[in-house]
Amino acid sequence: MADVCSSCKNQVTNMKGMVRFSCPGCGKVEFVRCQRCRANAVQYKCQECGFSGPN
Question: I need a surface site. Which of 22, 23, 32, 45 has the fewest CB within 10 A?
């Protein structure tokens, strides 16, 4: 299955600088972020608990 950025929805499988992490608020949802969205601090939001980042 291809990884998709949680913010921009672009495919990021094997992309340099991408990260994968659990929601800091609830730990139930996994986020995938591309290097561009990380560098530009593009927001993401957890559908489970409402946590949004980056803070």
Answer: 22
DSSP state of 32: E
Which pTM does this prediction carry? Answer: 0.84
Q: How far is CA 17 from CA 5, 36, 44, 55, in A?
A: 12, 8, 17, 20
List, in sequence order, the alpha helices (H) in the chain.
Answer: 35-39
pLDDT band with cut points at 50, 70 and 90 for residue 1: low
Q: In the chain, what are the domain boundaries?
A: 1-49
